[in-house]
Amino acid sequence: MAGPAFRAAAVRVRVPATSANLGPGFDAFGLALGLYDDVVVRVADSGLHVDIAGEGAGTLSRDENHLVVRSLRTAFDLLGGQPRGLEVVCANRIPHGRGLGSSSAAICAGIMAARAVTIGGQERLDEAAVLELANEIEGHPDNVAACLLGGFTLAWTEGGSAHAVRMDPVESVVPVVFVPSRPVLTETARGLLPRTVPHVDAAANAGRAALLVEALTRRPELLLPATEDRLHQEYRAPAMPESVALVNLLRAESVPAVISGAGPTVLALAGEDTADKVSLLAGEGWAAHRLALDALGASVLPLAVGQ
Question: Which of 124, 244, 250, 300 could cross-link to 237 by cystine, CB 3.0-4.6 Å?
Fold first, then answer.
């Protein structure tokens, strides 16, 4: 494959936050949320310049170790070669280490930007290849599938390759996220999971996961039973006791609520007429945000698009 040529103009990619698992859909389900990171990438004559505003501005690296840059580099290798230099500007709004897919957003932004700034990039790296590359970098496909495709996604791996199906969630569903001040590392939360679970729990989760597809796409009145989980949330409680307590409190009030991803953010799936009331139920110590559902996924946008 001949070496690539690059566009002189900068490209802008917008990527949504995501919530994975959604209760019973462990490592499979994802939901794209209306909270976004924006990344602008321009091919330069030489070197690497990284600028970061917003979430992580005081802690993230501004060199080759930055996850967006690593994803750019990996994608450029697949696209045929590296540009001479790069300028990368990140406007981050997705909280880090909170279970809202910040790493998947960075990965998807890097891959999509590399493809967009490469002439003929879409032909060299199609949608299936983008998902596969994002899965390889992230290590699992649930968040990256929702980030790339938008909507409600079901992701899986088969023969070592990642696959995903996108569905449209019911428009009346209003996500409310409760974000605590302290993060929890995904590795910490995953390390609490047992190697085996009782057969009865696995069977119950399979049924609830199937029900969740129906509830989230057609019958939201079933969301409370459909979001019941027995595979991961209670096992992770020692790492995030306040989050699990909030999930239990909300569910006792008949609000469908789950741990978002690996936590510690809590996701409630409210309705238009209840979302504002639900956002007040957590009390102090939580930042409650009523969000929209994202239908577009990762998108290349004009540079002048509004924030």
Answer: 244
